[in-house]
Amino acid sequence: MPRYALKIEYDGAPFCGWQKQIDLQTVQGTINQALQMLEPNCEGVHGAGRTDTGVHATGQVGHVDLKKNIAPERLLEALNFYMRNQGVAVVDCALAPDDFHARFSAIERQYTFRLLSRRAPMTFDKGTMWQVKHGLNLAAMQEGALHLVGQHDFTTFRSTVCQALSPIKTLDELRIEQLSYRGGVETRFHIRARSFLHNQVRSFVGTLERVGAGSWKPAQVKTVLDAKSRAACGPVSPPHGLYLSAVRYPLSPFEKV
Amino acid sequence: MPRYALKIEYDGAPFCGWQKQIDLQTVQGTINQALQMLEPNCEGVHGAGRTDTGVHATGQVGHVDLKKNIAPERLLEALNFYMRNQGVAVVDCALAPDDFHARFSAIERQYTFRLLSRRAPMTFDKGTMWQVKHGLNLAAMQEGALHLVGQHDFTTFRSTVCQALSPIKTLDELRIEQLSYRGGVETRFHIRARSFLHNQVRSFVGTLERVGAGSWKPAQVKTVLDAKSRAACGPVSPPHGLYLSAVRYPLSPFEKV
Questions:
Q1: Model ipTM value
Q2: What is the pTM of this model?
């Protein structure tokens, strides 16, 4: 019974998140339907991370067991055929060891958040970035972000419905860069950790946007972190700028390109 | 009677090209309708280049005369308000000298063509690149492109309906680069000249794609150029990978960002 690792890309807009749900269109449900076309009794795909409604992925990883031995290239082609025009694509596929588990073998998740500052509305890239009209101060956001890196109690930046056992997590990186974008500036947040709390990245970005806009002082990020209170958090950013961009394993199941 | 220069971005998909036409949706017609909301007798916008059906722009330039004195920022906001959700945006606006003419003052046009090599279908960026499934040899395309740079009779690379008086043009640059794109490679063509013949860029790209795929030898590009025959040209690439990316003037009407 071969096990396959899949690298999966999706536009979050049409989906009620990753996790399968009865009567709702989800990414996992869509992939499972395609797998059923190949093997009617297939148990379905397991994902590395459950993304929320509207959140995108460029590097979600899943694993699936099949009874048949199919060449990985053929599995990729078949799944993409059955999922055509549904907003999901398998971009890489490889045979994986039997003990590879997309979720439990993962040692790091990477998220990217795209935030556009531009007066003119978007013509291209609609639904792929959160847009604001004002500029954002990069140095101030970077100063604020430094308070979040490392091991902390992130109760402030955690959704009230978060099911994690502990609010203590270690944030390995929160890197912010700005790129010019026709008539505006794109701010990109790169965030790495072993695992995340529910809404943690969107709570970070919503808060740092307030710092970049000048409404909050950078030091206020530390004040609200220390408060360990959800009420102290800044606004939560919308989901459509957020991407699960990579999942890291001790041994990557995919070949380096 | 103040004259304004506009930097204009548009998704070519919904439009029958730039130039206004009765009963057809065009970019110029859409901008003119918005201008009519501001000044009912406005003569409308003049563009630097007439892009074809389906061709995009990130740096089209236009000029317009108004009777009222409106601050450029307000004109940008008003036009974008009237054109909302129509696939066109004014990304920059500035007062221009009376003798500034978007078309006749231009000394250079720059086009970019985006070509994606990837097996998996596109999830993001649909309609913004021409996709092929096979890889493309960069060095071979670069070798082929060298034959096109400089002053030549470009009859081979010119649509039969082209209205230019002469097929002789000077190509200042044809630079090709490749960027990694999740599970694939994007080939980007950067092309500069004072002016272009009809379908010239798409004829270049369609021919060079054949070279990159290995179907044509690089030297064949010179053979077909020397043939001065439209029949000798390779396939013409589709329009949705093509962008009018910049127009250059002796003095730019726009402030540097």
A1: 0.89
A2: 0.93
